[in-house]
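Is this the right way to post C-alpha cells for a design question? Let me know if I should format differently. Anyway, here goes:
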C-alpha cells in the first residue's frame, strides 16, 4: 500500500512525494525534455529535414563572433528595462487603487483589464492598424505624429513596442498588485492612522514594504516576458527598420525558420534561457526574497 502522507516534526503530517508526481512528470515532459533536446541540437547542423549531423562547437563559435546576436541581446535588454520602468509604477499604483472601495472602482477595473483578455497577436494587429501612416491615427493627427511613420525609425519602433507591451501587460501586473494589496492586514493601516500618517505616508511606509515580495515576483515575470517577446515584433516591425528591433527571440526565429539553421537557432534559444534564468536569480538574490520565511508580505 502506498503512503500518501508522511509524518513530519511534532507529529504533524504532510503530503507524501506521490502527490508531486503528476506535476513533476508534466514539468519533465514539457520543460526539461525540450530543453535537453534544444541543448543537443545546438551542437548539430540541421535544416529541418533529414537527420541532424554533429557540428561540435561550430554553432557556439559562430554566435560568439555574431554582431547581430550581441545587438539583439542589447535590444532585448533595452525593451525589458523599458517594460519594467514603465509598467511597475503604473501597475503598482493602479493595483493599490483597485484594492480599495472607491466609487465605480469595479466598473473601471473591468474596463481596464480588457487588454488582458486579448492575445498578443490580436493586440499587435490592432495597433498596427491604428498606427498605419496612411489610414490610422497618424493620418488623422499629423500635428501629433509628424510624418506618421512611427515604425520607420529606430526610436519610434522601440517606443511603439514598449508602449504596446505596456498597454497589454500592465493589467496583469495590476491584478497581481491588487490581490497583494488586499492581503495587507488592516491593523497596520489603523496603527499608522492613529500615529497621524496620511494617505501618502501610509503608502510609502505600510503598503509598499508589504508588497516587497510581490514587486520581486512581478519584476521577474516582466523580465522573463520581455526577453521572450516575439509575436509583437513579428507583426509590428518584423525586426526593422533594418535590424533595429531584431531582438533575440525574433533572431532565433529568423535563424531557424528563414535561414533553416536550427542548430544555430537552438544555440540562441539556450542563450536566452541562461540569460533569463541568471537575471531572475540575481533579482531574487539581491532582493532577499529567498531568505524571507514569514507568511506575511514583506516581513
Amino acid at each position: 500500500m502506498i503512503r500518501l502522507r508522511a509524518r513530519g516534526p511534532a507529529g504533524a503530517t504532510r503530503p507524501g512525494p506521490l502527490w508531486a508526481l503528476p506535476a513533476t512528470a508534466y514539468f519533465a515532459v514539457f520543460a526539461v525534455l525540450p530543453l535537453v533536446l534544444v541543448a543537443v541540437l545546438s551542437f548539430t547542423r540541421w535544416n529541418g529535414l533529414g537527420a541532424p549531423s554533429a557540428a561540435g562547437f561550430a554553432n557556439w563559435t559562430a554566435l560568439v563572433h555574431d554582431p547581430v546576436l550581441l545587438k539583439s541581446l542589447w535590444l532585448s535588454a533595452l525593451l525589458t528595462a523599458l517594460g519594467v520602468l514603465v509598467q511597475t509604477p503604473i501597475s503598482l499604483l493602479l493595483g493599490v487603487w483597485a484594492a480599495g472601495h472607491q466609487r465605480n472602482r469595479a466598473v473601471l477595473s473591468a474596463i481596464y483589464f480588457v487588454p488582458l483578455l486579448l492575445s498578443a497577436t490580436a493586440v499587435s494587429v490592432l495597433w498596427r492598424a491604428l498606427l498605419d501612416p496612411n489610414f490610422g491615427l497618424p493620418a488623422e493627427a499629423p500635428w501629433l505624429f509628424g510624418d506618421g511613420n512611427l515604425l520607420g525609425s529606430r526610436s519610434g519602433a522601440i517606443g511603439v513596442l514598449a508602449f504596446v507591451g505596456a498597454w497589454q501587460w500592465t493589467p496583469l501586473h495590476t491584478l497581481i498588485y491588487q490581490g497583494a494589496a488586499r492581503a495587507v492586514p488592516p491593523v497596520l493601516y489603523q496603527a499608522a492612522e492613529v500615529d497621524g500618517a496620511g494617505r501618502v505616508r501610509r503608502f510609502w511606509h505600510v503598503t509598499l514594504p508589504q508588497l516587497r515580495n510581490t514587486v520581486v515576483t512581478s519584476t521577474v515575470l516582466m523580465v522573463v516576458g520581455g526577453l521572450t517577446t516575439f509575436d509583437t515584433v513579428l507583426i509590428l516591425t518584423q525586426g526593422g527598420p533594418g535590424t533595429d528591433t531584431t531582438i533575440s527571440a525574433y533572431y532565433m526565429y529568423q535563424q531557424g525558420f528563414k535561414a533553416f539553421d536550427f542548430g544555430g537557432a537552438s544555440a540562441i534559444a539556450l542563450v536566452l534561457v541562461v540569460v533569463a534564468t541568471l537575471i531572475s536569480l540575481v533579482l531574487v538574490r539581491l532582493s532577499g526574497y529567498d531568505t524571507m520565511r514569514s507568511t506575511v508580505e514583506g516581513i
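Format looks fine. Someone answered above. Worth noting: The two ends are 42 Å apart (CA to CA). The chain has a mean pLDDT of 87.
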